[in-house]
């Protein structure tokens, strides 16, 4: 029976860092080394100021760093020492070439796999942790097998990660399930059991699911597609609510009480963001197209189309409410991260909204409690967002508080559901006093009590709610 004593994780990002830190925290008998090509990222992991913000992460890392948890740029040494290697590198949507805008870019997975093949001097269990298209493990196997000898044998497992940002540590300490796929060969099953033993250091055995490799790979894309589909479904309903006077919170609550549906992931919003949902659905759409299943591709594509529609619909409502023009008006954007409790801005709805505001020549003041100004400028300078540096300097202001952002603004737009924007935490009377009148507030997260803010004097518009239609 294989017993894992030394683990290497290639990729010290949002997944590799927290996942393997929790693994080390819960398994003092295993040495865990997390490696990355980025010197800056590794230096940050070795400092007091970790490179990602995630509640509870500091405690976990500081408890075992230097004991059985190490961060390093020496990829080769860590590969050579390890019995088991997680490949947890980025798999972004391809920007150019075949499948551009749809397929996952597997260049990082391939280069990490080639590195393992080149430098390994003993048998390894290689674990695909990155989210990848179904059958990627086959390509990894081909690369590794081409380099295996009688002394060096490689087994490949699929172990997709289901953590959500903002709750990563909670999710990792107490996962709904851990999924491990393997080739159903004697050696594949032995490797699978070795990884089961690692997880059962802290995860109850009944929550560790073992499947074949391809089921495991596809289940990851499937889970994300279904979660995003629920958001697009409730967002589609939010448009009907606004037109009829039905209240999207009430509809979600009533539907969610059906135990067959469940209440989670039914919060209407300005649109889902994050590095995963859109990327993984597009990945599934591409896979379906490649498999000559156009109806299946169109079905999943609609989840993304609805998400884009929701963002456009929100912007259109803002412009029409502000008397059909926002030129030179000041819009305060509260929140830039793609959800609360993270500093991650990848695919954040805020980026799309701000791009549209700037195209209408509005002035935009942004406040987010966890996103650095430098990151905001970087995101807005991406091709196709804010066209010129001059426009960026002239039209964008990064603020240190919600009050500063809202000062003299025509409208406040709540984009991220940070707790500090709630009406029992932020002094909305103070915000109102400082704004131009009429003072408009657009709640893209169903975060505030609209009636309370209307009493203060705000003109409030909330996704999925329309008081006028309701009373008509
Ligand atoms: N972010 C999430 O919440 C989340 C959750 C579940 C799954 N995933 C999946 O996990 C994977 C990683 O996502 P992430 O958010 O951690 O990405 P990330 O960009 O934060 O981190 C990836 C890291 O891998 C490093 N890297 C790339 N190629 C390398 C190589 N050859 N050798 C060493 N280091 C290398 C990069 O420098 C980077 O630091 C993706 O496939 C993603 O879809 C992400
Ligand atoms: O009811 C909801 C729930 C979420 N969101 C939005 O959806 C996006 C994604 O949120 P969430 O799923 O909580 O965060 P992620 O970190 O993107 O996590 C998803 O993507 C990860 C990467 O694959 C998976 O591991 C997780 O299981 C999956 O939840 C965010 O913009 C949320 O604001 C809504 O609008 N309404």
Automatic annotation (TrEMBL):
<dbReference type="InterPro" id="IPR017476">
    <property type="entry name" value="UDP-Glc/GDP-Man"/>
</dbReference>
<keyword id="KW-0560">Oxidoreductase</keyword>
<dbReference type="InterPro" id="IPR036220">
    <property type="entry name" value="UDP-Glc/GDP-Man_DH_C_sf"/>
</dbReference>
<feature type="domain" description="UDP-glucose/GDP-mannose dehydrogenase C-terminal">
    <location>
        <begin position="332"/>
        <end position="450"/>
    </location>
</feature>
<feature type="binding site">
    <location>
        <begin position="338"/>
        <end position="339"/>
    </location>
    <ligand>
        <name>substrate</name>
    </ligand>
</feature>
<keyword id="KW-0520">NAD</keyword>
<feature type="binding site">
    <location>
        <begin position="276"/>
        <end position="279"/>
    </location>
    <ligand>
        <name>NAD(+)</name>
    </ligand>
</feature>
<feature type="binding site">
    <location>
        <position position="445"/>
    </location>
    <ligand>
        <name>substrate</name>
    </ligand>
</feature>
<comment type="pathway">
    <text>Nucleotide-sugar biosynthesis; UDP-alpha-D-glucuronate biosynthesis; UDP-alpha-D-glucuronate from UDP-alpha-D-glucose: step 1/1.</text>
</comment>
<feature type="active site" description="Nucleophile">
    <location>
        <position position="276"/>
    </location>
</feature>
<dbReference type="Pfam" id="PF03720">
    <property type="entry name" value="UDPG_MGDP_dh_C"/>
</dbReference>
<feature type="binding site">
    <location>
        <position position="36"/>
    </location>
    <ligand>
        <name>NAD(+)</name>
    </ligand>
</feature>
<dbReference type="InterPro" id="IPR014026">
    <property type="entry name" value="UDP-Glc/GDP-Man_DH_dimer"/>
</dbReference>
<feature type="binding site">
    <location>
        <begin position="161"/>
        <end position="165"/>
    </location>
    <ligand>
        <name>substrate</name>
    </ligand>
</feature>
<dbReference type="InterPro" id="IPR028356">
    <property type="entry name" value="UDPglc_DH_euk"/>
</dbReference>
<feature type="binding site">
    <location>
        <begin position="130"/>
        <end position="131"/>
    </location>
    <ligand>
        <name>NAD(+)</name>
    </ligand>
</feature>
<feature type="binding site">
    <location>
        <position position="346"/>
    </location>
    <ligand>
        <name>NAD(+)</name>
    </ligand>
</feature>
<protein>
    <recommendedName>
        <fullName>UDP-glucose 6-dehydrogenase</fullName>
        <ecNumber>1.1.1.22</ecNumber>
    </recommendedName>
</protein>
<dbReference type="GO" id="GO:0006024">
    <property type="term" value="P:glycosaminoglycan biosynthetic process"/>
</dbReference>
<feature type="binding site">
    <location>
        <begin position="11"/>
        <end position="16"/>
    </location>
    <ligand>
        <name>NAD(+)</name>
    </ligand>
</feature>
<feature type="binding site">
    <location>
        <position position="165"/>
    </location>
    <ligand>
        <name>NAD(+)</name>
    </ligand>
</feature>
<feature type="binding site">
    <location>
        <begin position="89"/>
        <end position="93"/>
    </location>
    <ligand>
        <name>NAD(+)</name>
    </ligand>
</feature>
<dbReference type="GO" id="GO:0006065">
    <property type="term" value="P:UDP-glucuronate biosynthetic process"/>
</dbReference>
<feature type="binding site">
    <location>
        <position position="260"/>
    </location>
    <ligand>
        <name>substrate</name>
    </ligand>
</feature>
<dbReference type="Pfam" id="PF03721">
    <property type="entry name" value="UDPG_MGDP_dh_N"/>
</dbReference>
<feature type="binding site">
    <location>
        <begin position="220"/>
        <end position="224"/>
    </location>
    <ligand>
        <name>substrate</name>
    </ligand>
</feature>
<dbReference type="InterPro" id="IPR008927">
    <property type="entry name" value="6-PGluconate_DH-like_C_sf"/>
</dbReference>
<dbReference type="GO" id="GO:0005634">
    <property type="term" value="C:nucleus"/>
</dbReference>
<dbReference type="InterPro" id="IPR014027">
    <property type="entry name" value="UDP-Glc/GDP-Man_DH_C"/>
</dbReference>
<comment type="similarity">
    <text>Belongs to the UDP-glucose/GDP-mannose dehydrogenase family.</text>
</comment>
<dbReference type="Pfam" id="PF00984">
    <property type="entry name" value="UDPG_MGDP_dh"/>
</dbReference>
<dbReference type="InterPro" id="IPR001732">
    <property type="entry name" value="UDP-Glc/GDP-Man_DH_N"/>
</dbReference>
<feature type="binding site">
    <location>
        <begin position="267"/>
        <end position="273"/>
    </location>
    <ligand>
        <name>substrate</name>
    </ligand>
</feature>
<dbReference type="InterPro" id="IPR036291">
    <property type="entry name" value="NAD(P)-bd_dom_sf"/>
</dbReference>
<dbReference type="GO" id="GO:0003979">
    <property type="term" value="F:UDP-glucose 6-dehydrogenase activity"/>
</dbReference>
<dbReference type="GO" id="GO:0051287">
    <property type="term" value="F:NAD binding"/>
</dbReference>
<feature type="binding site">
    <location>
        <position position="41"/>
    </location>
    <ligand>
        <name>NAD(+)</name>
    </ligand>
</feature>
């Amino acid at each position: 029976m294989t017993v894992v004593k030394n683990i290497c994780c290639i990729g010290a990002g949002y997944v590799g860092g927290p996942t393997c830190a929790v693994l080390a925290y819960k398994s003092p008998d295993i040495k865990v080394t997390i490696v990355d090509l980025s010197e800056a990222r590794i230096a940050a992991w070795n400092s007091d100021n970790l490179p990602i913000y995630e509640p509870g992460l500091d405690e976990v890392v500081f408890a075992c760093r230097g004991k059985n948890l190490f961060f390093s740029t020496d990829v080769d040494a860590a590969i050579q020492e390890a019995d088991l290697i997680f490949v947890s590198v980025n798999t972004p949507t391809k920007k150019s070439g075949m499948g551009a805008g749809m397929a996952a870019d597997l260049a990082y997975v391939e280069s990490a796999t080639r590195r393992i093949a080149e430098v390994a001097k003993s048998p390894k269990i290689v674990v695909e942790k990155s989210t990848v298209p179904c059958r990627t493990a086959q390509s990894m196997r081909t690369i590794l097998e081409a380099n295996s000898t009688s002394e060096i044998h490689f087994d490949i497992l699929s172990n997709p990660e289901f953590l959500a940002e903002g709750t990563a540590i909670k999710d990792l300490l107490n996962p709904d399930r851990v999924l491990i796929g393997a080739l159903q060969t004697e050696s594949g099953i032995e490797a699978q059991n070795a990884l089961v033993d690692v997880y059962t250091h802290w995860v109850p055995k009944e929550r560790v699911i073992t499947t074949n490799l391809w089921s495991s790979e596809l289940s990851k894309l499937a889970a994300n597609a279904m979660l995003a589909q629920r958001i697009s479904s409730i967002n589609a309903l939010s448009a009907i609510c606004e037109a009829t006077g039905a209240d999207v919170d009430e509809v979600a609550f009533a539907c969610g009480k059906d135990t067959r549906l469940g209440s989670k992931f039914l919060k209407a919003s300005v649109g889902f963001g994050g590095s995963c949902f859109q990327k993984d659905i597009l990945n599934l759409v591409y896979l379906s197209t490649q498999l000559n299943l156009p109806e299946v591709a169109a079905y999943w594509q609609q989840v993304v189309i609805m998400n884009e529609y929701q963002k456009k619909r929100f912007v259109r409502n803002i412009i029409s409410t502000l008397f059909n023009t926002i030129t030179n008006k000041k819009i305060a954007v509260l929140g830039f991260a793609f959800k609360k409790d993270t500093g991650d801005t990848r695919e954040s709805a805020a980026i799309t909204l701000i791009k549209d505001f700037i195209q209408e020549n509005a002035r935009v003041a942004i406040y987010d409690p966890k996103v650095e100004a430098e990151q905001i400028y970087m995101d807005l300078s991406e091709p196709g967002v804010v066209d010129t540096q001059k426009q960026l300097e002239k039209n964008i202001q990064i603020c240190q508080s919600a009050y500063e952002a809202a000062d003299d603004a025509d409208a406040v737009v709540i984009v991220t559901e940070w707790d500090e924007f709630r009406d029992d935490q932020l002094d909305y009377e103070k915000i109102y006093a400082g704004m131009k009148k009429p003072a408009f507030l657009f709640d893209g997260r169903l975060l505030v009590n609209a009636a309370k803010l209307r009493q203060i004097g705000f003109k409030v518009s909330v996704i999925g709610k329309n008081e006028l239609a309701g009373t008509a």
